[in-house]
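Re: that backbone. Tokens:
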């Protein structure tokens, strides 16, 4: 949860702001990303089977993972188009921040009803969006500003999942000695992503 919040606010959103000179457009894309996920969640909740043990938060996590990985592919392809050195730097940065993020996502899937093995393979399957995003860039050659708006959209969608789905579910399970777990988890995850973001810019 904290990793997702940090990924949204300390990685994707700063990347978008640094690649676009119109703050209002970036923030609008950010808000649209969160609003879009609200409509996705509405569809998930309406059409889910009553007998299913998988919570909507797990499906929302998968949706946000796919969007995020698509943006990673766009960023990666754009970096390689700029220069080979920039491409390899982006590849390293994406690999570094995806490891803790995928661990967090798999944990969310398991805690919301998925079998651990299936959660692992679903997390890996979402990674197919990375080459998909890269192929889209290679085919369409979008501008840096378009890529920045896409990153802001993804940041909004990820923040929505973390705060609207995962955090409420965590509070429901927090009791006794675990009552501080959600707050501690957020703090630890945000600090981790802050350190990774600082390392990427170093």
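Recovered sequence:
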């Amino acid at each position: 949860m904290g990793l997702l919040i940090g990924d949204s606010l300390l990685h994707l959103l700063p990347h978008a702001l640094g690649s676009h000179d119109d703050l209002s457009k970036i923030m609008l894309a950010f808000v649209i990303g969160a609003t879009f996920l609200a409509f996705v969640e509405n569809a998930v909740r309406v059409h889910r089977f009553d007998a299913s043990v998988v919570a909507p938060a797990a499906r929302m996590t998968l949706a946000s993972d796919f969007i995020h990985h698509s943006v990673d592919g766009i960023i990666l392809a754009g970096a390689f188009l700029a220069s080979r050195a920039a491409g390899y730097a982006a590849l390293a940065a994406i690999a570094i921040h995806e490891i803790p993020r995928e661990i967090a996502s798999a944990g969310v899937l398991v805690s919301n009803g998925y079998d651990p093995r299936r959660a692992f393979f679903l997390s890996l399957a979402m990674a197919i969006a990375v080459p998909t995003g890269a192929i889209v860039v290679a085919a369409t050659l979008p501008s840096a500003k378009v890529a920045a708006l896409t990153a802001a959209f993804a940041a909004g969608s990820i923040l929505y999942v973390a705060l609207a789905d995962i955090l409420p579910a965590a509070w429901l399970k927090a009791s006794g000695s675990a009552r501080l777990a959600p707050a501690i988890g957020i703090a630890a995850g945000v600090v981790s992503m802050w350190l990774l973001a600082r390392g990427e810019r170093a």
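Residues 110 and 118 are 9 Å apart (CA to CA). Residues 2-201 form one domain.
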